[in-house]
Fold this protein.
Amino acid sequence: MGFGPENISTYGGAIDSMYFVILALTGITFIGVELALVVFMIQYRQGSGARVRGDVEGNNKLELLWTAIPAGLMALVAFGGQSLWATIRDPNAIPDDAVPIEVSARQFAWDIRYTGPDGKFGKTKTKLITEENPFGLDPEDAAGKDDIISDSIMCVPVGRAVKVSITSKDVIHSFFLPNVRIKQDAVPGMTVDIWFQVTKTTNQALEEWKKAKTAAKSIEQVTREVAMGLLVTSAEAISGKGEEIVGADSLIIDVETCQKIKAAGVKQLKVYPDFDFQIVCAELCGNAHFKMKGTLKVETLADFEQWLKDNAPS
Amino acid sequence: MHEATHAHATTTAHGHGHSGIHPAPTNFFRKYVFSMDHKVIGIQFLFGSLFMALAGGGMAMLMRLQLGWPNARHSLLANSFLLKGGFQDGIMKSDFYNMAVTMHGTIMVFFVIMPLLIGAFGNFLIPLQIGARDMAFPFLNMLSFWTWLPAAVIILWSFKYGAAAAGWTGYAPLSVLEKAMPEAATGQTLWLIGLLLVGTSSIFGALNYITTIINLRAPGMSLMRMPLSIWGLFVTAILLLLATPVLAAALAMALFDRTAGTSFFIPGGLVVNWQQIDGAAPKNGQVLLWQHLFWFFGHPEVYIMILPAMGFNSEIMSVFARKPIFGYKAMVYSVTAIAALGFIVWGHHMFQSGMNPTLGTAFQTATMFIAVPSAVKTFNWLGTIWGGSIRFASPMINALGFISTFVIGGLTGIFLGNLPVDIYFHDTYFVVGHIHYVLFGGALFGGFAAIYYWFPKMFGRMMCEPVAVFHSLWTLVFFNGFAFPMFLLGNMGMHRRIYTWTEYAHLAGAGPLNKMVSVSAFCLGAGQFLLLGNMLYSIFRGKPAGNNPWEANTLEWQTTSPPPHHNFDAIPVVHRGPYDYNHPGASSEFLPQTDDGTGSTNGSNGSTAEQH
């Protein structure tokens, strides 16, 4: 079971289950209370002829009952969440073999760092931070020479735990991976460690996504959605004539492309919404907060290692 | 009225006449502007809050316009005199959106809900319901309004310079680092000043309410005979007095950080837009300190907004079910329990803030237990209408609406209070839905119920009932239409305070829900003009109300509508609790608190407590 965007983490399923347990508990209470409310409203409306119980001013047994039962249930909810919370958040619960990654948030992007082949992060100094050196790597420290730095793309291997140390250079941001069910504020002046392990690669998810979400839409509909700013239209399916017009490489459609396709007489397109696992900033962090996002790229272990090599400092 | 000519000193010194009352004002300014009369001050707060509701609501409409139709052009709005600064090429600017978000929250909390429930009804009701001539400190009461009003003016005026844009929670360091948010450089400072003033106003009010309730109750009005509305306001005032100074301290520290070069909330080594923030003297503040201080105030603040509404609701449920409130004592204890627990749950706003996860466990446990007294209240309300004879007048419709929606607000809080589930829902629209169910579905429905119920006492005239019923049902429908889909958006993972959601793959399907929220919000907003229109019309043209149009028991209904300057011709003597409806064997269907059991009532025209 799940809700919202597909869960791809080892512990996300347990969070989803906890959600459904609470949903059942609150759902039953909700229906009970609303039902009682409606029944009483009808049964005891003025003029219904029901006896008016002006003699009833309360009932201590009932008070006790409806204090004790919610208290018991709430204790269950509190304790039920505790072990899962410890799994996710206890710093000692982070697997020892987790791949270490650092995140330094800034307005309005995510700077991401890997240790490189030596397995060690180089020393940093905040005084050295510049646009070219977003972590303030100390050039004196040899451990930093092979550190890999990426702008807003976090590549992680599937099936292996990663440990992410999160901080911020300026204001509070919040590192949110909807698919992984993890969120942690990036706080300036503090570093917080979280961990997660992903169960599915981006490519696997993309194939399933295409299968499920590809739909034929009129060119007018596509134009409207594109104009709205929706990244709906990474459209592999510009088939036949369309492909000649926009070029086979151009999978993302903009308004201009839409107009070209329409002018060529294409009436319908097979499209699917753009897809990626995303890094979202969940804390208001300034003017462009709404577009502070990154990509969580999940690869097989081999592809992950290749990605590290491709991005190694020259 | 001959009292008007008595000098204050004379009446008190000689211990006769209407002791404890300042003289009735003789000129317009003293009567309506710089008034010390709690009833006039209440009405000032009422209209002040309704005016601010237009501003705060208007900002909500602008936000929903953008979120329903992202990046659409609105040439009419973009060219209007008031809004043209917020648009570029007909499209709303993102910094303007952030200002609307911030000021909507700020205005609704500090300038609508609080002054409506506490300023307007607290002032109007406390002396009338406990049988006093006025507040204990009438001058302080006047000051309370006259610090609130400049605060409101400052908050509105700040739009001229680019209003605050760091959210109503004003999280540091975004709110204290001018370089991080240059678009709101002046606005954010004015926001701090405005809130400091409004906090001062709250402290003045709270002092007054507590003193008045403790000292000025009429003879026979024991604590356990007080109407539940007074209990709600009493506990609220205690919360205000304990919590507001903490906010004031935090605001003052933030103001120093912004203007005087201190660094309470600014840690060392910050780099904003590739510029080093540390000057010659390095900063060494703590970011989380702001959150602890803010939420130490902010969580009690939620109860400050809901407890008065719960009190009004209990009052109205009993009157319109024609039955005693079910479990009066349990109601009092649960209000007190909510208030007490309310001081040890602030950390549940900070589960994902980087606070020690073990603290999270402690705060989760306290948070879960706050559901218990809330449940007790809900079940007691159901017990109150059980076996009643329910009159579906407009106050009751809103009270029933309160229960049906507050339940949703309360239950969704359990998701957010649960540590692992909150990881996902924190800072998403699930929270936005939750807060609106509590603060609109709860606090504002309580406010509407109170307006419909006490309007006849305030102005001596009835409101137009068919319009009132229509407005109440309309509001209930479209409130749910706008707030419920927010939970579903939260499930999708839509995060808060974003100017457009179109950037995100997982939100590609959020269009229809967002449109539904927006359309419902527009209908909801438009419907509120029915309330305003009805009020303005009824003040002048409504049917005369008489002393006790709802056949209620509490003291305010035992005097004229509107009450005279000194409230009661003679201080009433209280003989019974406030909810004796359909008392077995009684001669009347309702027994006013002044009924001494012989069938005669004292009060405004009956026996007096102060005979000499």
